Amino acid sequence: MSKTQKSTDFRPKGSIALEILAVVLAIALIFTLTYPAKLWKAEDANVKKCRENMQHVYYAEITYLDTKLSYNDTLQKVVDFIISEPSGRLLKRFASLDSILGQKVINQFKKVTDQVTIKVDSAFGQGPDSVITLEKNIRVNALLDSMLSFANAVDLDTTEAFILDSLRHWPNYSTRIDSMALASLRGLFTCPTNSKPYIIKVNNDTLPKTVNIYCPVDSAYALRIKKDFKLGFLGGLKVENHGAIENGANSWK
Q1: Which of 40, 73, 80, 97 would bridge with 59, disulfide CB 3.0–4.6 Å?
Q2: 246-249: Cβ within 8 A, 24+ apart
Q3: How far is it, in rounded angstroms, from Cα 249 to Cα 107?
């Protein structure tokens, strides 16, 4: 009985090494394409968040100064003062002042398709004897679009405050706005890039009093990122100061 010897494929060692090298190079290529992009995307988000935080800080300070008339407390005490006010008046005041928070609220309520009942005049502008008040059901997002159109038509400077005050007519929406305001107040303490607190300078001697807020990212931190092998060399990440709010004006566009 004859035995049939199975044939075995042999590959030169050099070809195996080339295949391994090709895999390594492919991984390296993917890394160089995705890793820097991931870092820059994260820093772009940090810049946006940092600037939003500074605006939240500014309006929190203004809310505090409106009541206290002078600034002698830490940011933590300012936030605690607003949150702990029993009637919720200061929280509502902060929400009405903060246009960035107001825009976030508007964006959230644009997604709401619940229906609410509003009262409308059947013959608006036709004289008092011809006006009949009717009730109409309307989706919240449609009502929001209507309010935005009105605000734009009359060139309203306080569009966000107008819409927030209108939405507060419904208690559940008022609670939702307050929840978003609380989240903003509780998350405004540090810059997301270097996790350091904002630099706040208040001048109590001027009329009106001035509140200036500065991003804590400085040249020393930027240099540290540049020299970091993983972030600066491999990722090509560069960071810079995110700006400031001085006398109510943003340093960024």
Answers
A1: 97
A2: 246/210, 246/212, 247/210, 247/212, 248/58
A3: 24
Q: Which residues, listed in sequence order, are joined to residue 115 by a DSSP beta bridge?
A: 139
For residue 169, what are the domain limits? 46-250
> Percent of the chain scored above 70 by pLDDT?
83
Residues 150 and 154: their CA atoms lie apart, in Å, by 6
154's tokens: 């009359």
Distance CA 219, CA 241 (A): 8
pLDDT digits (tens, 9 = 90+) for 62-113: 999 888 877 778 999 999 999 999 999 999 999 999 999 999 999 999 998 8
User: What mean pLDDT is predicted for residues 153-176?
Assistant: 90
- Give one DSSP letter per residue of 137-166, joined into a string: EEEHHHHHHHHHHHHHHTT-TTHHHHHHHH
206-231 confidence digits (pLDDT tens): 777 888 999 999 999 999 999 998 89
Burial of 158 (0-12, 13-18, 19+ CB in 10 A): middle
Which residues does 191 contact at the CB level (< 8 Å), separation at least 6?
Answer: 46, 50, 53, 197, 198, 215, 216, 217, 242
Would 20 be classed as within a structural domain? no
Query: Does 4 reside within a domain?
Result: no
The CA distance from 41 to 24, in Å, is 25
- Beta bridge partner(s), residue 116: 138
* Strand, helix or coil for residue 43: helix
For the whole model, what pTM was predicted? Answer: 0.80
Number of domains in the chain: 1
